[in-house]
Fold this sequence. Notes:
This protein has helices at about 40-50, 55-65, 125-130, 135-145, 165-175, 190-195, 225-230, 245-255, 275-285, 300-310; strands at about 1-5, 15-20, 30-40, 75-85, 95-100, 110-115, 120, 155-160, 180-185, 200, 215-220, 235-240, 265, 290-295, 315-320. It is an alpha/beta fold. The model has no long low-confidence stretch (mean pLDDT about 90).
Amino acid sequence: MRAVTCRRYGPPDVLRIEDLPRPVPAARELRVRVAATTVTSGDARIRGFRCPAIFWLPMRLVLGLRGPRRPVTGMEFAGVVDAVGDAVTRFSPGDRVFGLAAAGAHAEWLVVAEDSAVAPAPAGLSDFEAAALPFGGLSALIFLRDVAKVKQGERVLVIGAAGAVGASAVQLARHLGAEVAAVCGAGNINLVRSLGATVAHDRAAWDSGQEEGRYDVILDAAGAAGPASVRRALAPRGRHVLLSFGVAGMAWMMLTALWPGRRVICGFAGGGAADLRFLRDLAEAGTLLPVIDRVLPLEAVVEAHRHVDSGRKRGALVLTVGAGRPA
């Protein structure tokens, strides 16, 4: 099978297309014939091994010292189950599925555990659209619902609102009953307004000091705003949620936890099959719309990584693997 591999950390050019054996599912695994996948910011960070210094050694031990221990890249996927293990009960060959894997989705076939983040694909969405949902959707859901604990009627500001996580966060914050504002590039203002933001600021001109005390939650989906730079925009008991953080972010979190008032909260995205099914239901209802920057063939994976590294991606960047299911 064709698969994208990363044998050493580095720039996009380290990626290769290789012919590898087709994986065989174990007893509690299913094999998916992948139709569409994506290149996420997470894929780019792993390929280039970009992480805060404090996490350098533990991340190397987890991912691989000289190169990724699991060389086939890719997280998001959509496709059709073509084989299942003897103990699988929830899926059958021919089922359309979508999901999020730790690695291996940039390939013609992918094996995932039945109890992992995989679920029936949303009806009415193409494979390309389904593949664009899990990474941004699960990240936004976990950080808004579980980390920030957004409540009905709160005011939420999403920074980096046009990216895969940010675009999902705008829509999911609205679904949770929040009033949503956004910060993004000038060219994406109309997009984020169409997703549900009542106010959209050009990031080049936005001055957080002019919105003192306005937001109950600031969700920084782009890693673009340090706690000190937006602290005045938080309400007296507001929460600044960091999706990407290092020593400084952790220090802010510990310090602000010592007394009542504005807080900085760091967290990690997770989510499993139940959360994927929740996203699927929202997508089928038209409440959560996939945003796709562009669709490229698997062979253009280096170009795709370069675009992600540029910081100009809006929504998801989809790679086609098979013919895919049309919209």
